[in-house]
Amino acid sequence: MKIANLEAKLRGENQLGKRQNRLLRAAGYIPAVVYGRSKEGRNLALDEKSFTSHVWSRHKVFELKLDDGSKEETFLKDLQWDELEDRILHADFIRIALDEPMRSTVQIQFVGTPVGLSKDGAFDAPIQEIEVECLPKDLPELLRLVVNDLDVGDSIRVKDLPLGEGVKTLVDPEEIVCQVRVKKVRKETVEEPEGAAEAEGEGEAPSEG
Asked: Least crowded by CB within 10 Å, which of 5, 83, 95, 150?
């Protein structure tokens, strides 16, 4: 994964709070915080346009260049969204060391249409994201998995994922990521019309004891 460079402004205690956050967003900035590695947390302001562009590009590892001349090597841990306006409200970063392995969850994107679907098969994907461990520079932005060749009865397991050099997962390698299975046939029961049972018994003489 590419390490993205992002400029950030430090925010003082008098620039915090809901009112200040609203003013900050109105001015085109996003409130953010960076913390971790036994250091004091720092409140930041990010340029909304620049940061949102990085987010849509799936960047997660950032070198934050602060306006006091310092730098922070960070990982984007969490985002708070305004779903109605589809914009970022707040960002959380954690400090990392670029030369130390880290763990993160990576989304799996399934590409193509399995050939087994044309044979009345059904596609299942029980695993759609997976936790990996690697150096920050090796972290995949996305795992693209081509499924065109999957026939009925075929599957792709964790051990088959294209993780890339230096990337490993602690998930059981035999776990099924996706498969094409035989569709379950639904059995329909035919209900007898009302009165049919009574009609069958009409005219029968009682047994003699």
From this structure: 83
Q: Is residue 34 part of a domain?
A: yes
Q: Torsions phi, psi of 88, nearest 5? A: -80, 135
Q: What is the pLDDT of residues 60-117, one digit of tens each?
A: 999 999 999 999 999 999 999 998 888 999 999 999 999 999 999 999 999 999 999 9
Total domain count for the chain? 2
Domain CATH number, residue 130: 2.170.120.20
Two tokens, residue 24: 């900050």
Instruction: Residue 89: name the closest of 21, 36, 33 by CA.
Output: 21
Q: Is residue 107 part of a domain?
A: yes
What would the two tokens of residue 85 be?
């306006």
Strands (DSSP E) found in 83-206: 87-95, 102-111, 121-124, 129-134, 143-146, 155-157, 168-169, 176-182
Task: Please state, in angstroms and rounded to a whole number, the distance separating the CA atoms of residues 86 and 88.
Answer: 7
DSSP label of 85: T
Q: Are 47 and 4 in contact (CB under 8 A)?
A: no
Residues 45 and 32 sit within 8 Å (Cβ to Cβ): yes
User: How far is residue 164 from each of residues 110, 137, 143, 144, 175, measured CA to CA in Å?
Assistant: 17, 12, 9, 12, 18
* Predicted structure pTM score: 0.76
